[in-house]
Amino acid sequence: MRNVINFFNKPLLKIPLAFGVLAGFVCFLFFLVVQNLEKFSGTGRALDVGFFAIIIAAACWYYRKNIGKGYMHAWEGISIGYVVWLTGALLCGYLTSMFFYFSPSALDRYKQTLRTSLVTNQAEAMKVWGKEIYQQKLADISQLTPSSFIFDEFRFTLLLVIIAILLIALIFRKKKAEA
């Protein structure tokens, strides 16, 4: 048991995990705000990338200032970014899943909003996806369950977060001057 505790006691893991929990709660709170708006878009989840970028930058800054004593390698920034993102996305996904599990009416409203959005933008969607994929996406909406949302955060933010993590790691890296 002591080995497990020692493993998680490393600053390169402990700090990003704490910031990741913060990111998960912030993204979930944003999701709740979006859910309570009269008119919301089903794609509003992709805006979480901004929250992740801010929190990843804060985690890199904190690590560089307090642990690295003003220095941080790019690989440390990348590691911090991925741990923050993975932790935050997983926590937000589970909280979203629990929200829809305990509030089936919210899930029904979410499905209806997605369906309305897809039907409203039918011409554009058919042009981009084609008729068969459009019909499949429309049918998939009725198949949504609370557990469907656990990995949504990963799916919606993956590519943009990777770019943000690389940029933040490069911005915050600072090597010691060689003597």
Task: Walk me through this protein's architecture.
- It is a single chain.
- By secondary structure, the protein is mainly alpha-helical.
- Helix content is 78%, strand content 0%.
- It has 8 helices and no strands.
- It has helices at residues 2-8, 11-35, 48-67, 74-102, 104-120, 122-129, 131-142, 152-172.
- Helix 2 packs parallel to helix 4, helix 5 (104-120) runs antiparallel to helix 7 (131-142) and helix 6 packs across helix 7 (131-142).
- The chain is elongated and about 55 Å long.
Brief synopsis:
The chain has 179 residues and is an all-alpha fold.
For the structure shown, list the relevant keywords.
single chain, 179 residues, mainly alpha, 0% strand
Helix content: over 70%
Q: How many β-strand runs?
A: 0
Biggest sheet layout: none
Order of helices and strands: HHHHHHHH
> What is the 3D form?
elongated
Radius of gyration: 19 Å
Mean pLDDT across the residues is: 87
pLDDT under 50 segments (min length 5)?
Answer: none
Strand content: under 5%
Q: Oligomeric state of the chains?
A: single chain
Number of helices: 8
Fold topology:
Blueprint: H1 2-8, H2 11-35, H3 48-67, H4 74-102, H5 104-120, H6 122-129, H7 131-142, H8 152-172
Helix pairs in contact: 2-3, 2-4, 3-4, 3-8, 4-5, 4-8, 5-7, 6-7
